[in-house]
Specification:
The protein contains one helix and eight strands, in the order αββββββββ. It has about 140 residues and is α+β, with helices and mostly antiparallel strands. The protein has one domain: Immunoglobulin-like. The longest helix is centred in the N-terminal third of the chain and has 28 residues. The chain starts with a helix and ends with a strand.
Length: about 140
């Protein structure tokens, strides 16, 4: 029975140490995490509605077969790696999804919307997660 204690205790200590190391490393490695909302409304009838608000990336009212492009810019006051991820939205893509910039530089990211002809009518919303971290 005592032999198990000699094995279990070091394993528990190793696991706890690994978790703490991961938390400290990630908090040191990441400068900032931001999100930008993305939305569009698929309607029937070929109507197109434009939303020029700047609080999110709005594609407005679109029809099946529609394509559009928007752009946003990221800058950093430090050398940084920029990683973008799409969350919870279909028919949207990003280019680039990863970039490395120097302090004071800016980079533009293109957001593409390509609605297929067989897309279901309705409102769609998701987000772009932007992670700025150390190079």
């Amino acid at each position: 029975m005592k032999k198990h204690h000699f094995i279990i205790i070091p394993v528990i200590i190793a696991v706890i140490t690994s978790i703490i190391t991961g938390i400290v490393y990630n908090s040191y490695n990441i400068y900032k995490i931001e999100t930008i909302d993305v939305d569009y409304n698929i309607t029937e009838g070929g109507t197109i509605g434009i939303n020029a608000d700047t609080d999110a990336i709005h594609f407005g009212r679109v029809s099946p077969g529609f394509s559009a492009e928007r752009e946003f810019t990221v800058s950093s006051d430090k050398d940084a790696v920029i990683i973008t991820e799409l969350k919870g939205i279909d028919y949207v893509s990003l280019n680039p999804s990863y970039a490395q910039i120097k302090a004071g530089e800016k980079i533009s990211f293109k957001v593409y919307l390509n609605i297929p002809e067989n897309a279901l009518v309705g409102y769609h919303k998701g987000e772009i997660k932007i992670i700025t971290r150390r190079p």
